[in-house]
Specification:
The protein has 3 helices and 3 strands; from the N terminus they run βααββα. Strand 2 and strand 3 form a beta hairpin.
């Protein structure tokens, strides 16, 4: 199981658009980290978001 996903993968997993995903990250509703120039989204926080919906 993957621990993180790229923004593109996170969009595909959730069905959300890139802008919405970045907004959720900015508000702290989705956890992410930056490695070099890559923004990685924590898969567990995506699961929590979908379950809460």
């Amino acid at each position: 199981m993957k621990l993180t996903a790229t923004v593109k993968e996170a969009c595909q997993m959730t069905g959300l658009g890139k802008t919405t995903l970045y907004d959720l990250m900015a508000r702290g509703e989705i956890e992410s980290t930056t490695v070099g120039r890559r923004r990685l989204v924590k898969v567990e926080s995506l699961r929590k978001l979908v379950e809460a919906a």
